[in-house]
Design brief:
Number of helices: 2
Number of domains: 1
Strand order of the largest sheet: 1-2
Number of strands: 2
Radius of gyration: 14 Å
Order of helices and strands: EEHH
Amino acid sequence: MARYGGEEFAVLLPNTTAAGAAQIADQIQAAVAELGILHHESDISDRVTLSIGIASTIPRPDDPPEALLTKADSAL
């Protein structure tokens, strides 16, 4: 897991299918919801929430590193 933006994180799951990644995303989302962190400035919810985009790939030498992040952003 790595923070790569102000409020953006990436979780890399080698040898994990897209369905497996979706299960882990659900677990992460449930864990954050269970924390019940207050977010007074949000127009969406008074608690911290997550938007998760899942992308899966088998990397090739000619794939730009940004390609997987672009796919994950699109999946949001």
